[in-house]
Amino acid sequence: MIKITKENIIPYLKEHLPDFDDSLPVNISMVGEGTEEEDGDGYVNYIYRVQTPKESLVLKQGTDISRVSQQEIATYRNRLEYNSMRIFYAITPEYVPYLKFQDRENNIFVMEDVSDLKVVRFQLNKNKMFPELGRQCGEFMAKTEFCTSEYYLSREKYRGLQKHFENTELRKIMEDQMFLDCFGCDVDYSLGNNFADFANQFSKDSRYRTELYKLRRKFMSHADGLIHADLHTSNILASRDKMKVIDMEFAFMGPFGYDLGYLVGNLISQYCAACFKRFPSEQSRKQFKVYLLATIQSLIETYMKTFTLCWERSVKERYRGQQGLLQSILQEVMVDMPGYASMVNWFRSVSDIPYPDFDVIENKDAKRNATVLSLMIDWGIMFGRYKYQSADDLIETIIGIEEEFRKSL
Question: The Aminoglycoside phosphotransferase domain covers which part of the protein (predicted)?
Answer without folding.
Answer: 217-265
